[in-house]
Amino acid sequence: MEGTDPVNKKLAAALSSGAALVLALTGCSDDSGKTDDWAKQVCDDLQPQLNKIDQANASIAEASQASKPPEEVKKADAAGFQKVSDAYKAMARAVKKAGAPPVEDGEKLQKDAVKELNRISGEYQELKVAAEKLPTGDKFDEGLDKLAAKLKSLGQSGDKALQRLQKGEVGKAMAEQESCKKTGVTKDGS
């Protein structure tokens, strides 16, 4: 299918913007020992999951590069969405395990982040199911386009929710953690 490549590249781009929302957990700098300890634990636990999301991006991008048949693209996309879903679920567990950050409203920040990460995990699970159900005939490109639109919307809503966790002392402490810096993402998300 000639149109499949650009459409599937939209999926890969949208998926990578979803990973950027978790990387938005970084901020500036703080000397608070307890906050730093909390941030280190969370960053260390998030890093492997962020790597899994990067790998999922790569598999989706690879499927779109080689003009593969629709069945292979569906399989690669579904597997990528499953990996991302699992990674977000693991991130939710990591934030929950870390406990509330030692800042004002820390319990609410933690609870909201866990809830949002679990919600995003569920959304990626739904995308996986939708990818598996894509028709492979004439409507394949149209189906991929719909998946890309859902994915873009998901990335935008997740960005806003997790930016709340990056504010104040928590975000500052996370920015100082080596495992949060490894991503190479700047403050503006580029």
What key attributes describe this structure?
190 residues, mainly alpha, 7 helices, Small secreted protein
Secondary structure: elements and pairs:
Layout: H1 4-23, H2 33-65, H3 70-98, H4 106-132, H5 140-163, H6 168-175, H7 178-181
Organism: Streptomyces smyrnaeus
Protein name: Small secreted protein
Region (Disordered): 166-190
Summarize the structure.
The chain is mostly helical. It has one domain.
Mean of residue pLDDT values: 75
> What percent of residues adopt helix (DSSP H or I)?
over 70%
Work out the count of structural domains. Answer: 1
Q: Class by helix and strand content?
A: mainly alpha
Helix and strand run? HHHHHHH
Major sheet attributes: none
Number of helices: 7
Region (Disordered): 166-190
Organism: Streptomyces smyrnaeus
Protein name: Small secreted protein
Written account of the structure:
Residues 23-31 and 183-190 have low confidence and may be disordered. With 190 residues, the chain is an all-alpha fold. The chain is 76% helix and 0% strand. This is Small secreted protein. Residues 166-190 are annotated as: Disordered.
